[in-house]
Amino acid sequence: MTLLRVENLAKSFKGLRAVDDVSFEVTEGSILGVIGPNGAGKTTMFNLVAGALRPDTGRVHLGGKEITGHAPHRITAAGMTRTFQLMRPFYSMTVLENVTVAVLAGGAAKRTARETAAEVIARVGLDKWRDAPTEGLPTAALKRLELARALASKPRVLLLDEVLAGLVPAERTPVMELLERLRTEDGVTLVFVEHIMAAVMRLSDSVLVLDLGRVLTSGAPEEVTRDPRVIEAYLGEDPHAKA
Ligand SMILES: Nc1ncnc2c1ncn2[C@@H]1O[C@H](COP(=O)(O)OP(=O)(O)O)[C@@H](O)[C@H]1O
Ligand SMILES: [Mg+2]
């Protein structure tokens, strides 16, 4: 079943077509990898889909309901949320407080918010840091916190913007395993923007390639990454290399 459907989405910034007629569908329980060079429009596309920006044209449907142009909190309530490439937790709070705020923002009852937050923190492997101040957390823990904040609303669809960026290879593997478990055990549908091709190859059921705001191609990871146009866009990087 198609859970997320994006049709002909477009957004210009002062004449620059950041996202230009982008369409794709995501099947429930699947993982879609989104790749493309810097400036391709990946983050802008997430902003349009998750409601941070209103598209100039196009439509977004979640679970058969149109959510185009809805505010982010409404889209979260409808079952879809995202992480930010540039993380912005409340640095003055602890990890538990940060996730509790996110749980409450997701519309949960006050009474159970801390409990739910603690569960989500355990889910992402942050127990060790639960009561630590957010300021001064290592990058790997901050990335997990960003995941926890997004998971706080119990989304059906999670949009991940470069969650592996800034992690050393040894830190990436457990995060990839966590993402796989979110899909298999929690049934979360994932759309993830990622530069690290080994992660794209490992996690994605299908891959969407953006370039200059447009869909360059899409399909199975093995096919897409053999496309000469994709290889050209990633000069010097062998998408089939092992992590
Ligand atoms: N708020 C904005 N105002 C003006 N230009 C923007 C804005 N956000 C993104 N852009 C431009 O849109 C293009 C796509 O950016 P972005 O979506 O961040 O790409 P990606 O995430 O693929 O690197 C870039 O040329 C970028 O400079
Ligand atoms: Mg980006």
TrEMBL record:
ABC transporter domain: residues covered: 4-237
SUPFAM superfamilies hit by this protein: P-loop containing nucleoside triphosphate hydrolases (SSF52540)
PROSITE patterns: ABC_TRANSPORTER_2
Superkingdom in the source lineage: Bacteria
SMART domains assigned to the protein according to its UniProt record, in alphabetical order: AAA
Gene3D superfamilies in the record: P-loop containing nucleotide triphosphate hydrolases (3.40.50.300)
Name by which UniProt lists this protein: Amino acid/amide ABC transporter ATP-binding protein 1, HAAT family
InterPro entries assigned to the protein according to its UniProt record, in alphabetical order: AAA+_ATPase, ABC_AA/LPS_Transport, ABC_transporter-like_ATP-bd, BCA_ABC_TP_C, P-loop_NTPase
Residues of the signal peptide: none
Coiled coil: none
GO MF annotations, alphabetized: ATP binding; ATP hydrolysis activity
Any single Gene Ontology cellular-component annotation: plasma membrane
Keywords: ATP-binding, Nucleotide-binding, Transport
